[in-house]
Amino acid sequence: MKPLSNIAKAPVRCRGFTLVEIAIATTISTLIVIASLGFLLEATRATMRTQNNSQNDLTEWGIYSGITIDSRVANGLNIYKDFTAASFNALADQISDKANTVTGLGNRGDFLVLSKSTQPDDNTPAKFLSLTGYVFDPGSPINGGKGTFKKFVYSVPTAEQGNTLEAILTAHYASFVLITVANGLDAVITDGAPSAAQKRAFLYRDVKLHSAVLNLQVRNGFTGTRTDNAKLIETAFFIRI
Predict the structure, then answer these.
(1) HSE (CB half, 13 Å, CA atoms) of 210?
(2) Predicted local confidence at residue 183, as pLDDT
(3) Element (H, E) at 152
(4) CA 241 – CA 238 distance, rounded (Å)
């Protein structure tokens, strides 16, 4: 009997992968990776859209609640075409419920003033105590989704309380401290002839009821990446006189 150590060991044969099998496995792995990345990308987009929608809701709430509260404590409402000294340096430039045939101004504008004044019973002129202004700046290019909504609060000095609203605005136009309320806004109320139409933020509804409407659209995200989300902010408000 031959010793076990002298018995030749049979060669072990290992079967390799063919080129076709490697190519199939590589293709399947690539498809799995691509599908996983696609699901991940879409999940990320959905998350960003949800976040943008939440941000739009917060913007709507901030604008709506601010104007609602301020209009409840005010007893005067004035709208002007623009937030410029030239727009309110005369009473004729004020926006009313009907188009002004002299200036060509309609009932839409980008500057709202909510005022609080004394209401005497006799023929004594009212005195302005405080002003709250809301300014829509359409940005550049106009109505290109880069508009900002700003606010200022101004306590009228005792020596100036008997002045007209236009006189107070003109005198302190350059010194009002504007605080940004929201960004990324578009106005949606069309004003002017079709050849030179421009969108405005405020619409004067009825001078007798002292009511107005605000229409803005807020958008967050990017259309090209399918992460954008837009929301219409529309609110009607009025003052008690």
Answers:
(1) 14
(2) 87
(3) strand 147-155
(4) 10
pLDDT category at 139 given cuts 50, 70, 90 is confident
Sign of CA pseudo-dihedral 103, 81, 69, 124:
negative
Give the residue from 46, 37, 31 showing the smallest Cα distance to 225: 46
**Nearest-angstrom CA–CA distance, 176 and 132:** 10
**8 A C-beta contact, residue 132 and residue 152:** yes
**Terminal Cα distance for the chain, rounded:** 124
- 120-138 average pLDDT score: 86
Q: What is the pLDDT of residues 51-61, one digit of tens each?
A: 777 888 888 88
Task: Provide the 3-class DSSP secondary structure of residue 74.
Answer: coil
In the chain, alpha helices (H) = 19-73, 165-172
Report the greatest alpha carbon distance in the chain: 138
